[in-house]
Design goal:
Blueprint lengths: L6 H4 L11 H6 L8 E2 L31 H11 L6 E4 L2 H12 L5 E6 L4 H8 L3 E6 L10 H11 L3 E5 L11 H10 L4 E5 L21 E6 H5 L7 E4 L2 H10 L7 H10 L3 H24 L3 E2 L7 E4 L3 H10 L2 E2 L1 E2 L8 E4 L4 H17 L1
Parallel strand pairs: 1-11, 3-4, 3-5, 5-6, 6-7
Antiparallel strand pairs: 2-8, 7-8, 9-10, 10-13, 12-13
Length: 363
């Protein structure tokens, strides 16, 4: 007799992501090291210089600290919150799944504002939850209609609401006043504010005064800030009771010792982050200017990445990949005519522009 999983798992659609598909690269005869990756919206500077972790720094014969105590203390000091308000995860994706595991069940409802990060939907479907969607449109610049958001919340009363800010892939940043309106309306549900790309936003607003009195869960990604994708490291900030609830469903030893140590060392690199912000802004300005000169429409973005209308996004990506350049095909976001680009250093940005010029010359 065939062994069948739960219906939610049988029908689950796996979310697509940026970054290299190692099987695809192998089929093309490419190695990851020779591909310039504009598809991942992480720090263009790479990991902080001098971030070297040896055997003397990490005891791999011991279990890691399940509480990630030292890293949480460092984060608490930097953020201005209490250690008990923080939970560290193996990337923010793990924290998204912990939140849905703790607060959603079959028949419950979540709300997702689209287009956005696909893992919100995956996590909800795993739990058997229904989804209310608010689809933003390009004709309106992918701007969030907060009145409509409030109307949907009142109509469907979701248990969980996901807000990616700045939003992936549009780069739109929701201001504090409009977010407060949503938070006030959603007083009886969990609002998950995903700030994975907040490092690269100018004049970002603070939610510190909100977490004590609201059902607010803020997610941050050290993967993006410090280019630690290979280690997987993120953290959540919320009221103590929310953090304690997530901790109950969190696997023991969920963050390995190397990742914890890397996070502690990275948090000492304030000047590195400022340099990285400047480098990302410089690369983005260059790419938007040059791609616009080539006749491509670049959509406004307040993040370190932006959308570009290219026609057939899948074909555009495939051609560039054969030139050892990787961009994000946004078809999985419901945007089959757009790619997403996150700047690298200026030299690599120039290579991208040159490759696109060559592609245009072949048409």
């Amino acid at each position: 007799m065939a062994l069948e999983p739960r219906p939610e798992i049988s029908n689950l659609r796996i979310s697509e992501h940026g970054g290299p598909n190692y099987g695809e690269l192998e089929a093309l005869g490419l190695s990851p090291g020779e591909v310039i990756d504009f598809s991942v919206s992480s720090n263009p500077n790479g990991p902080p210089p001098g971030l070297r972790i040896g055997a003397k720094d990490v005891h791999i014969d011991r279990y890691p600290d399940s509480e990630a105590g030292e890293l949480r203390r460092c984060l608490a000091q930097k953020l201005g919150v209490m250690t008990r308000n923080i939970l560290v995860g193996s990337g923010s994706t793990e924290l998204i799944r912990l939140a849905t595991l703790a607060y959603l069940g079959r028949g419950d409802r979540a709300m997702i504002i689209e287009p956005t990060f696909g893992e919100y939907e995956v996590a909800c479907h795993i739990m058997g939850a229904s989804i209310t969607r608010q689809r933003l449109v390009e004709e309106n610049g992918f701007t969030l209609d907060v009145d409509r958001t409030i109307e949907l919340i009142r109509q469907h009363r979701p248990q969980v609401i996901f807000i990616c800010n700045p939003n992936n892939p549009t780069g739109h940043y929701l201001d504090r006043t409009r977010f407060e309106r949503i938070l006030a309306t959603a007083s009886d549900c969990l609002v998950i504010l995903d700030e994975a790309y907040i490092l690269f936003v100018d004049s970002a607003w603070s939610w510190i005064d909100m977490i004590g009195n609201h059902n607010l869960l803020v997610l941050r990604s050290m993967t993006k800030d410090y280019t630690l994708a290979g280690l997987r490291l993120g953290y959540a900030i919320a009221r103590e009771d929310i953090i304690n609830t997530l901790r109950r469903v969190c696997p023991p030893w969920n963050v390995n010792s190397v990742a914890q140590r890397a996070g502690i060392l990275a948090l000492q690199q304030d000047e590195f982050l400022e340099r990285s912000r400047a480098l990302a802004a410089k690369g983005k300005d260059y790419l938007v200017r040059e791609l616009t000169r080539l006749g491509l429409r670049c959509l406004p973005s307040e993040a370190n990445f932006f959308l570009v209308e290219v026609g057939n996004a899948s074909d555009f990506r495939q051609w560039l990949l054969r030139k050892k350049i990787l961009v994000r095909d946004c078809t999985s976001f419901g945007l089959p005519h757009h790619i997403r680009i996150a700047p690298r250093g200026l030299a690599k940005c120039r290579q991208l522009v040159s490759a696109i010029k060559e592609l245009q010359g072949k048409k």
